[in-house]
Design goal:
single chain, about 240 residues, Rossmann fold, 2 domains, 10 helices, about 40% helix, binds D-glutamic acid
């Protein structure tokens, strides 16, 4: 199968990694819109324009399905996007909401972008503590030390039964948080358990980013441990 995956930058690569682990023999087209990062503080109108250009690009590659590996687009635009196109489109947040609703967790923390928190998508029938974390995505993309900022945001939370990494960039904190004995919820893993994809014959990973530089390559190599092709591609964002 041909599978399209997208995010504002490298965050969705954490989801791609899970997809490739579980469904290795497929052709993956990944678009990371890092020239427009961060998405988490953009207006819904801007997010709509940016995501529709990316989806058009992925459709031009003849993908069979698209995965929105961005919490911000998922929480604000999924319903709209889902009904607009003729191929199956999955978002990264709904499977996690379903999972949380079935779980025994009483108190749940959520770290996410401003726009995801504002969307109220995580307001379910539990004690939910949401913390918007605007500093994290730029630090992660620039390959800088994000631990002090992360600790600052963690300090805003009470003790919780589980902590949702509500922005796909934050999945890189998983090991750090687990070492602190914090139970984390990985939306990428939950999505992979929910969907089912037929395997083809070989694994191909094509990565497209709107801006390619040294930091990007370092970041990709930290997450994707398989061969990939990388291309710089700036979409035409005009209406
Ligand atoms: N990784 C994205 C998300 O899951 C976008 C983060 C951003 O660009 O602010 O929300």
């Amino acid at each position: 199968m041909k599978i399209g995956v997208f995010d504002s930058g490298i965050g969705g690569l954490n989801v791609l990694k899970e997809l490739v682990n579980k469904y290795p023999n497929n052709t993956y087209y990944y678009f990371g819109d890092n020239i427009n990062i961060p998405y988490g503080t953009k207006s819904k109108k801007e997010l709509k324009l940016l995501s529709s250009k990316i989806i058009q690009f992925l459709l031009s590659k003849d993908v069979d399905i698209i995965i929105i590996a961005c919490g911000t687009i998922s929480s604000n635009l999924y319903m709209e996007i889902k009904t607009k196109y003729n191929i199956p489109i999955y978002d990264i947040i709904s499977p996690t909401i379903e999972y949380l609703n079935k779980s025994d967790f009483k108190t749940i923390g959520v770290l996410a972008t401003d726009m995801t928190v504002k969307s109220n998508v995580f307001k379910i029938n539990r004690d939910i503590y949401q913390v918007p974390c605007p500093q994290l995505v730029p630090l992660i993309e620039d390959n800088l030390d994000y631990i002090p900022a992360l600790n600052k945001y963690l300090n805003k939370l009470p003790e919780v039964d589980a902590l949702v990494l509500g922005c796909t960039h934050y999945l890189i904190f998983e090991d750090y948080l687990n070492n602190l004995n914090i139970k984390t919820i990985n939306m990428g893993k939950i999505l992979c358990d929910k969907i089912s994809i037929n395997n083809g014959n070989e694994c191909k990973i094509r990565l497209y980013f709107s801006k390619v530089n040294h930091n990007l390559i370092t970041n990709i190599d930290k997450i994707i441990k398989k061969d990939y092709q990388l291309e710089e591609l700036c979409l035409n964002y005009q209406k």
